[in-house]
Amino acid sequence: MNIKFLLCICLFCIFSIAYSQKVLSLHPLFTEKDAVLIPNLEGKWNIPAFNMTISFLKKGDNFYILKYGSEKNPSTFEAVFVKIKNELYLDLNGVMSHSIGDEDYRNTFLTTHSLYKIRLNKDTLQLYETNYSWFFNYAIKNIMLFKYEWVKNAMLLTYNTDELQSFIAKHNNEPGIFENPLTLISNHLDVTEKSKLINHASEAKSSTVISQTCSPQFPLKDGWFGGDGDVSVPINATTTLFIFSDTWVGTKNQQSRMEPGMKMVSNSVAVETCLPSGETDVKYFWNNMHSENPEPIFKSFTKRYKYWVSGAFMINDNLYVLLEKVGTKLGASPTEIFNFSLLGYTLAKISNPAVVPDRWNIEYIPIPDFGNPSLGIGAHVKLENYIYFFISRHDKAQVLVRKQLDFIDISEKPFEYFALNKTWKEGLDTNDMDTIVNGFRNTTVNYHPEMKQWVMICDIKFLDNKIKMRTASALTGPWSDEIDIYEIPEVTTGNSSYTESNFCYLPRECIQNYDSKKHVMLLTYDINNPDFSKINANPKIYTPKVIRIQLN
After folding, report:
1. Residue 275 burial (10 A CB sphere; 0-12, 13-18, 19+)
2. What residues have CB less than 8 Å from 310, skipping those under 6 apart?
3. Which of 120, 234, 355, 519 is disulfide-compatible with 551, CB 3.0–4.6 A?
């Protein structure tokens, strides 16, 4: 197959004259952790030199969409800012419209990146483009060291992201590397940063535990044909949201997975309501339901990653959903099951969680300090003035961080960590973090007051057939050793529910369904199989499983 390069829309750099020589990059200048937002950038900007207007619109948690041209057919770019040695840079990457061909056709185009050095002064934004002459001369002098290819009228840098950042950091102050500044003048009103209205009296309280008597159910209906993740959050005495990661969806009247038309969205939501009769009413939601182009509730607005769901909690009347940025795993083998990579985390804030999910107002808040494998976010606990997160260190140990509820919306406000000297310290010094638990990552941690114990549900190791828990009287430990609480029939040979190659994961306690009188927990967990024909044929695979566990 011939690979075509979409060189910033047909080899035209966004602000340059056609057929001029360019310097482009095969790889981005940023990682998800590096990307930064620019205060008051959103809105329209004039370019006097070209008598044109462009616009910046924030998308996702840490990048913008840049547009110019006609409303019906605009030129559209992902615009990501990054700081290198305290200098600000812009990475522009062309976005191809979904109206052009089908997905197979669009995938033959490999987008490239235009790089600019930035100067920002109040209402003036200056973009300095990469200077072809400087890079050409550098290539001649350093032919054995410089990584690039020739593509038509462009020099295509082939450094990976780390190498590209190092190269820019080394040469950024050399004369001539970035030249020809283009000046943008803001024509939107200055927007002062919104003040945070903090009611310390209301936010300083721990959340009230909501108890529900009906049981969660996950019927395959209304075009919803299974999902995993199963994050639950009660929003009132009768209603619980279940938020799923990858979800199979189909048409409104589709009856089974065996029928044509199934597609996958990266997340969906079930609204489960306890009825007076004791039964459970279930309604599923995703965007563009029952259409040819279904979309998830939580959109990433980029092809770099999609959103899976890791956790959810309420603060006052706002719903917060912890999202994982999941991208492709480079170099994955054709038979690899886990052919994805966790790139980082985002916190989604929903200000109107009581309305139907496809009408939610969602704000995406960056959480740049965390990512696998060294700082993977596990279970959360909301206690008094803080939200606590258990953090997995290479799936071998767990540490504890926290942030004040008042500042959960403010990315710039640092977390605190539980230190080796058993005190809380500001920042994330990984060398000074106290190990709370030695062992595999967890999924939920909940307090059971009648037992005066915290209960931690552990994630399931690949191909293991046991669900395990730990207990502690204090959040900071000491925590017990793992305790086997359930043998999983779907991965236990000799059981009628067993299917070859099944694997199970993400058991979670639904604390709203805990029976405190009988000490019975309700858990969900997920069943999967690398053989899609087995998922299609068995509706119990890739549908959340509900179990009850007696606590002694």
Report:
1. exposed
2. 229, 231, 322, 323, 324, 345, 377
3. 519
- The Cα 46–Cα 49 span in angstroms is 9
Cα 208 from chain centre: 28
Give percent helix, percent strand, percent coil of the chain, each to the nearest 5.
10, 45, 45
Rg, C-alpha atoms of the chain: 25
Query: Position of tokens 């410089």?
Result: 146
Decide: residue 162, CB within 10 A, 0-12 exposed, 13-18 middle, 19+ buried: exposed
Instruction: For residue 452, give Cα distances in angstroms to 384, 473, 546.
Output: 17, 6, 25
Taking a C-beta distance cutoff of 8 angstroms, is the pair 443, 506 a contact? yes
- Residue 305 · residue 366 · CB < 8 Å: no
Is residue 526 within 8 A of residue 541, CB to CB? The reply is: no
Kindly state the helix (H) or strand (E) to which residue 483 belongs, with its residue range. strand 483-487
pTM over 0.90: no
Tokens of 12: 């035209």
Q: Are 213 and 274 in contact (CB under 8 A)?
A: yes
Residues 502, 505, 511, 512: is their CA dihedral positive or negative?
negative
Residues 6+ apart with CB under 8 A from 383: 206, 475
- At 460, list the tokens: 């399931």
- Burial class from Cβ neighbours inside 10 Å (0-12, 13-18, 19+) for residue 254 reads buried
**Taking CA 500 as the corner, what is the angle to CA 494 and CA 502, rounded to the nearest 5 degrees?**
105
Task: Give 10-residue mean pLDDT values along the chain (552 residues).
Answer: 37 43 95 92 92 93 94 92 96 89 84 95 93 94 89 91 97 94 80 33 44 90 97 93 98 91 96 92 97 96 96 96 95 91 96 96 94 88 96 95 96 95 96 96 96 96 97 97 98 96 98 94 97 94 97 86
Q: Using CA atoms, how far apart are residues 228 and 230, in angstroms rounded to an integer?
A: 6
Q: Is 514 left (phi over 0), alpha (psi -120 to 50) or beta?
A: beta
Contacts of 368 by beta carbon, 8 Å cutoff, 6+ apart: 32, 33, 34, 35, 62, 344, 411
- Token pair, residue 196, equals 């945070």
Residue recorded with tokens 């996958």: 264
Cα torsion for 241, 345, 530, 297, to the nearest 10°? Answer: 40
Cβ-contact 246, 227 below 8 angstroms: yes
- Can you tell me the distance from the alpha carbon of 89 to that of 83, in angstroms, rounded to the nearest whole number? 6
Whole-number Å distance between alpha carbons of 327 and 348? 18
Task: Specify the amino acid at residue 92.
Answer: L
